[in-house]
Design goal:
The chain is α+β, with helices and mostly antiparallel strands. The protein contains 7 helices and 4 strands, in the order αααβαββαβαα. Helix content is 37%, strand content 16%. The two termini are 33 Å apart.
Length: 191
């Protein structure tokens, strides 16, 4: 399906989106009641919104309740186009919530979760410091005020990620990295 443009959406589409943002688990019958349509019409509109890629219904997570914190890692590399492959691989790590190319003093930004400062330090040493043509980086420890729930694919890890963690020299070194708490979680739930 072709991608929807803002002018393709009518008032009912916006009401559906608003109601789903309030409660993504609302039934089609209840959603229809709230927007003034029968549930088959709601299903058709919802299918259109999803298949066009405009919305995605998913379970978002309150990372604070799981004991995680956030760090913004601003990175400057000589040439962003020369590190696209590495940044793409880095962004597959379940610790990385967002990876962006940006303008300003730094040209890359990662939003990273961590449970323990040693875990964050190990991530920086193993992943960020090894980026080719790295000029500099800065770390800001952040607290989420809003939104309370964020999209985080915590239960899906790259199997190579765990292998790298198991063989990492930082696990035994000065930093004494506790290992990736996300990989430990996935091992515990049988991933």
């Amino acid at each position: 399906m072709k991608s929807l443009q803002i002018e393709d959406l009518d008032e009912i589409d916006w009401k559906i989106i608003t109601e789903l943002q309030r409660d993504g688990r609302v039934s089609l019958v209840e959603l229809g009641r709230k927007v003034g349509l029968k549930h088959p019409s709601v299903r058709a509109r919802l299918s259109k919104l999803i298949s066009s890629g405009l919305i995605k219904v998913q379970a978002n997570i309150n990372i604070k309740k799981l004991g995680y914190s956030l760090a913004v890692v601003n990175i400057e590399v000589e040439d962003v186009s020369s590190v696209v492959k590495e940044v793409s691989k880095l962004s597959r790590c379940p610790k990385v919530l967002f990876a962006t190319i940006k303008s300003g003093d730094y040209n890359l930004m990662l939003l990273v979760t961590y449970r323990d400062v040693r875990e964050l330090k190990a991530f920086i040493e193993k992943r960020v410091r090894r980026l080719p043509k790295l000029r500099r980086f800065s770390i800001e420890l952040d607290v989420i005020i809003k939104p309370e729930f964020i999209p985080w694919n915590i239960c899906h890890t790259d199997p190579h990620c765990m292998e790298e963690c198991e063989s990492c020299e930082l696990r035994k070194g000065v930093i004494s990295c506790p290992g990736c708490s996300i990989n430990k979680l996935n091992t515990a739930v049988g991933k």
